Amino acid sequence: MLRLIYANTLDSDAHYAVKTANISSFFYLEKNKQKLAFLDRREFGLIPKGTGVKSILVEKFLASAKKLKFQTSGRNKLAYVIFKEYRLFGKKVEVPAHFPLDMADFLRKNGAKLVPTYPFFPERAIKSKPEIGFIKESLKHTRGAFGIIEKILANSKIKGSRIYYENKMLTSEYLKQEAEKALIEKGMFDLLGMIISTGEQTTTPHHDGTGPILPHRPIVCDIFPRHRKSGYYADMTRTYVKGKPDSKLEKMHVAVFKAQRAATSKIRAGISAAEVYQAAADSILRSGFDVGETGFLHGLGHGVGLDIHEAPSLKATSKDILEAGNIITVEPGLYYPEIGGIRIEDMVLVTKKSCQNLTNYPKKLVIP
Fold first, then answer.
1. Residue 240's beta-bridge partner residues?
2. Rounded distance, CA 42 to CA 319, Å?
């Protein structure tokens, strides 16, 4: 197998290949069980020992690249020299789906056979022991952010149609700010933003939330930060009500809780992701709610790692089979414009016979 990446380590495949962050754009090549990273002198030695990746000074190829007469970029010329040096022209070379288009066109014009491949590292779906540890750490700090949100809500007062904290109207923006402070203190960063929505906003699952937090209405908090050092994400959702929820909303919360429990009870190595989704959907239907265009209207979950969404996918049409070592979200939800939205999300580790809940955090709805 021949595999080639050109990216920096903000790219999750490049990060996975060299097991480190903070390396600017570089070539990574797998050939004949060799793993080679072409680095310049400024970053040489950054790849941790024990990865099996051999670092090569890219400067040794730059002189040859500069001599080429092609009217193209320096990085494309360098790619050409590497293809020549390692006899890659004429052979099938797998590249990520996001491989630079200009480089692909140039290399193909000169005889390269590039095969866009997704997922590029299918093995990423099965987490190693260190990766599991990284995700557990990310979740630990994310739980801390939820603790801050709950503390603020508990110490707030309802006055008419608004909620006040320390004599100021409580807003989505303020809760996000305080949650983000807690995350930053623990080396986490809110790379993709977070969801803290309220009232009618909660009926749109990915509405990020804005404006006043409303009393007696649902507050969906979905936080998915990345650890600055390890690069691994956490993903967690809870729904709260400050005050007294509508009875229909309480029933929705119970239904979502039961659906999550039904799904997690099915999870084990060897089961199809679609079957796990169906367990949640069937539970929702038994509770008297809808599945499809209203009610439970999205997939059940997804893998999490160096990307917030990665394999496997838990939805009705998924062809994935769960394997021991997968770390997935289980996040059923219900959404009705006239009532509001409810979502609960935990992350679980798939094991041979069941799963382990890594989130391990209460699912209380009402905060008086």
1. 219
2. 44
Query: d(Cα 11, Cα 25) in Å, to the nearest integer?
Result: 10
Residue 228: phi, psi to the nearest 5? -60, -40
* Stretch 76-96: mean pLDDT: 98
Q: What is the pLDDT of residue 22?
A: 86
Mean pLDDT throughout 274-286?
Answer: 98
Residue 168 has which token pair? 């100021």
- List all residues 6 or more positions away from 160 whose beta carbon is below 8 Å from its beta carbon: none
| SS3 assignment, position 183 | helix
The three-state secondary structure class of 282 is helix
Which amino acid does the sequence have at 362? P
At residue 161, the pLDDT reads 96
Identify whether the C-beta of residue 82 lies closer than 8 Å to the C-beta of residue 95. no
Give the list of residues 6+ apart from residue 260 with CB closer than 8 angstroms, or none.
280, 330, 331, 332, 344, 346
**Section 184-194 average pLDDT:** 95
- Residue 214: both structure tokens together: 């409303």
